[in-house]
Amino acid sequence: MYVSPAPLAADLRSADDRDKPSRTDTLTAQLCDLIGGPVGDHAVIGRVRFWTPMRVLMAFAVVFLALSWFGKAGCIQQRPEGPGVMGLDWDNGRQYIAMCYSDTVPLYGAEHLNEGAFPYKKQWTDFAGDGRPQVRYMEYPVLSGLFQYGAMGIAKAWHVSRLPGALEVVIYFNVVAFLLAMAWLVTVWASAQLAGRRVWDAALLALSPLVLVHAFTNFDALATAFAAGGLLAWARRRPVLAGILLGLGGAAKLYPLLLLGPILILCLRTERLEEDSLWGRMRPLHAAGAAIGSAAVTWMAVNAPIAVLYPKGWWEFFRLNTERHADPDSFYNVITSFTGWTGFDGKLSSGETPTILNLVSLLLFVAACAGIAWIGLRAARRPRVAQLVFLVVAAFLLTNKVWSPQYSMWLVPLAVLALPQRRILLAWMTIDALVWVPRMFYYLGTDRKGIPEQWFTGTVVLRDIAVIALCVLVIRQIYRPEEDPVRRDGVDDPAGGVLEHAPDPALPWLPPLLRPRRAAATVPEPEFAQPVSTQ
To answer: Which of 96, 185, 259, 356 is buried most, with the most CB atoms less than 10 Å from its CB?
Structure first.
């Protein structure tokens, strides 16, 4: 007989429904041996006053963001360029050898932010590869451009103050890094909320190798924060707010708008023509329409003033993306690298539009989206929102002619929510992060002891294979929901919002080719809406 060494507490409540990775995940179980082993069978869960899961995740994220800043710090080192004159130490390809390159630093001068000019209004002349002059403007979407302008204003105010100083571009980088770190913390927070009882899945988001490499490579953390916030608002049955946040994300980087497609497909699948006493209060298609409508209005509200006042500056982002050739990271360039293929349009000079490449890229993405929509409608059980969203964003990156290295951060929160398999995700993130090494030495050039292009494009192939493998695993779990760890213990879809625990009808009003293969087992409808866990 066992006797408690002290009187039991009056409140013995325990969050026993929370996932315990030290017992359900082999990787975590092995790592837990370093700190005393897995959680006990009779442990009381969720009673720690300070170190709650969310605070632990925030601490993890802050540590990795700090390490990421140190990784970029080599590119903001200063050196004297003359009597009383300081400059950045980027001689002899230092930014590539130290692998600290960040777009933030060169763009401060290239986008003429150092002049204090307002983006989209300021124009300048560059010379193309063939020597032709070309009028240029800010090349980023409106919200990203205004974000850079705001950071520039803070940097200039700091520079003229009596605060500890440095080169203005160094201060600018640090301001941007701080703001992007806050945005990534929002991404981690929102993703942890979306994970529901599997809150510890977000630990891989906070500890991702891709954060170490790309948190401050560009401005993408701003878009991931809006995207994660939009999904969280949808999960909490606030479709208008979800649309507003996704619209703001689309004004920073266009990819958050892609999240609306899977939401529409899943709402279409869930819609029933007859009224329902519970779900008639917020029919799925009404919610989807509210989200899409508010996203469109928000995107236009942000873009319209710039488009009206500075139409050429506003159009610059779209013009450059239309005229841009295949990115070094795209599979189109990979084929060229290994075969010598000249591309769909042949050899083009700078400024010439790759018309056929643009069309092929668009058609491939549309075909991929059609396939994903078919999966979403035909699967025996309705897929989770995160699963379809991940597939769409992955398809966009794989078929697009541009895959800048920091774009991989778009996938991190979506992959963690769609496929919470820690070993698999860690393997993909490590492969993707390590692509940065050959990329930097390829950009260094063979004349400065860099590496040939094929060494870089070979690692791109490995990354693409890893992403395709993730897509295959997600599709497998869509067709075999019993293998989905999120859906254990009666859980339906923590990010589903109005879709969570909604009926999954046979949809007789759809063409037979688009109906579910069989009527899914009806999930009991809850008496009340089930909010996402805030633990």
So the answer is: 259
Cβ(395)–Cβ(362) under 8 Å? no
Q: Which residues, in sequence order, are CB contacts of 431 under 8 Å at separation 6+? A: 459, 462, 463, 466
Q: Which two tokens stand for residue 486?
A: 């999120």
In a domain, 399, yes or no: yes
Q: By 3-state DSSP, what share of the chain in percent is helix, strand and coil, each rounded to 5?
A: 65, 5, 35
89/38 same-domain check:
no
Rounded Cα–Cα distance for residues 167 and 159 (Å)? 8
At residue 531 the predicted structure's pLDDT band, cuts being 50, 70 and 90, is very low
Q: How many residues belong to the chain? A: 535
Q: Are residues 405 and 369 in the same domain?
A: yes
Dist CA 407 CA 463 (whole Å): 13
Q: pLDDT over 90 for what percent of the chain?
A: 65
Show contacts of 139-142: CB within 8 Å, 24+ apart.
139/111, 139/316, 139/317, 139/320, 140/219, 140/317, 141/250, 141/251, 141/252, 141/253, 141/254, 141/317, 142/251, 142/302, 142/303, 142/306, 142/314
If asked whether residues 79 and 176 sit together in one domain, one would say yes
Burial 35-62 (b: 16+ CB within 10 A, else e): eeebeeeeeeeeeeeeeebbebbbebbe
Alpha-carbon distance of 409 to 217, in angstroms, equals 10
Q: Is the pTM of this model over 0.85?
A: yes
Between 17 and 308, the higher pLDDT residue: 308
Beta strands in 46-84 (DSSP E): 78-82
Q: What are phi and psi of 398, to 5 degrees?
A: -70, -35
Q: pLDDT digits over 89-121, tens only?
A: 898 889 999 999 999 999 999 999 999 989 999
User: CA-CA distance, 233 to 247, in Å (whole number)?
Assistant: 13
Residues 25 and 134 placed together within one structural domain of the fold? no
Q: The tokens of 532 are what?
A: 């996402």
Range of the domain at 337: 48-514
DSSP 405-436: GGGHHHHHHHHHHH---HHHHHHHHHHHHHTH
DSSP 8-class letter at 504: -
The 10s digit of each residue's pLDDT in 456-479 is: 999 999 999 999 999 999 999 999
- Asked if 60 contacts 68 with a C-beta cutoff of 8 angstroms, the reply is no
Q: Count, in order, helices (H) and strands (E) of the chain.
A: 21, 4
Helix runs in 195-283, H state only: 203-206, 209-214, 220-235, 239-252, 260-270
- Please answer whether residues 354 and 336 qualify as being in contact, where contact means their C-beta atoms are separated by less than 8 angstroms: no
- Domain identity same for 151 and 19: no
Tell me, yes or no, whether 107 and 245 share the same domain. yes
